[in-house]
Amino acid sequence: MTTALLSTAQELHARARKGRRAVVMTMGALHEGHAGLIRAARRIAGPDGEVVVTVFVNPLQFGAGEDLDRYPRTLEADLKVAGQAGADAVFAPSVEEVYPGGDPQVRVTAGPMGERLEGASRPGHFDGMLTVVAKLLHLTRPDVALYGQKDAQQLALIRRMVRDLNFGVEIVAVPTAREEDGLALSSRNRFLSPDERRTALALSRALFAGRDRHAAQEALRARAREVPATQARAEALSAIGESRAAADAHAVATASPGAPAAVRAAARQVLDDAAHYDPPLELDYLALVDPSDFTEIGDDHTGEAVLAVAARVGATRLIDNIPLTFGSLGAAS
Questions:
Q1: What is the pLDDT of residues 56-84, one digit of tens each?
Q2: If you ran DSSP here, which 8-state letter would residue 45 be given?
Q3: CA geometry: angle 260, 189, 82, nearest 5 deg
Q4: Is the pTM of this model over 0.90?
Q5: Per residue in 286-298, is it b (16+ CB within 10 Å) or e — as a string?
Q6: Which one is catalytic: 13, 31, 34, 250?
């Protein structure tokens, strides 16, 4: 497949369209995580559709002291990765093409959800992100746009913008791609030294520790629902050596839920240990939130949640998250 490199919206709009157009938005420095998004887009678009990958390092979403100038630009390599994954075109506009009048005076505002977690750590980041996503959706005119779950808050805000402002596009989430050792794929991983990378593994290990605690508690709660609190049942369990399991299950069933607190504590222990590594992990936040608004969930929460973490290792800031479901055996993905 020959992948076209386009630099203007006029070139993109001049392409003949048939079937569905699926768009994957990136800031370049493509890796296997991006390739997975492109392959998913190819499947959705089908053989008669079109997959467009955007490559644009958006200055609006970088704050003072952040790594705009340091962010890798690897367009030639990106074109190759996109083509091998099934892209029909790479749209790589200049800043002047996207913002022809300079910094836009009218922008999309992320609202209260955009002020939490990443928004609190990076003021204005989500306003800049939503503004460029809105512009790129208009410029590329897709039927469907795909985003990775690693940027969970970004994904939630894009979905909210599309719903609140009536964008005629379907938003599809694709699970986080990871290295074999669990580290979430990121364009910023290339900045990590070998020692820093070992420290960075604490992010995913913390999430997995929280996930494992969650799964254990959900299993106990399910077992508790199957253990009637009767004397005859207790005697029967005791007779076959299950009295301890029954007691544990009953305790879980009758105590206040507490599962979110236990999940946070399990993850926090890993991160606290990593603060003493050489080099150390500097935690920005650990949060267990409702994905609808990114507020912290309470111990009585049921339904979907996101366990999210952000930290700095050396000069590199990394984020990661996993989805959880409370109140059923459904757990991590």
A1: 998 888 876 677 777 778 999 999 999 99
A2: H
A3: 105
A4: no
A5: bbbbbbeebeebe
A6: 34
Beta-strand relationship, 316-326 and 50-55:
unpaired
The alpha carbons of the chain give a radius of gyration, in whole angstroms, of: 23
For residue 289, the cross-strand partners are: 296, 306
* Count of CB atoms situated within 10 Å of the CB of 259: 26
- Give Cα separations from 132 to 61, 261, 325 (angstroms): 9, 37, 32
CA distance 245 to 75: 58
134-143: b (≥16 Cβ within 10 Å) or e: bbbbebbbbb
- Strand pairing of 303-313 and 281-289? antiparallel
Q: Do residues 125 and 119 make contact, with C-beta atoms less than 8 angstroms apart?
A: yes
Beta bridge partners of 91: 6, 54
Residue 39, Cβ neighbours under 10 Å: how many?
19
Using a 10 angstrom Cβ sphere, with 0-12 exposed, 13-18 middle and 19 or more buried, the burial of residue 216 is middle
Instruction: Count Cα neighbours of 194 within 13 Å in the Cβ-side half-sphere.
Output: 0
- Contacts of residue 163, defined as CB under 8 A and 6 or more positions apart, other chains included, come to none
**Average pLDDT rounded to a whole number, residues 157-174:** 97
Q: Determine whether 125 is an active site residue.
A: no
Residues 19-59: tens digit of each pLDDT = 999 999 999 999 999 999 999 999 999 999 999 999 999 88
What is the C-alpha separation between 57 and 94, in angstroms, rounded?
A: 9
Q: In this structure, what token pair is assigned to residue 268?
A: 């926090």
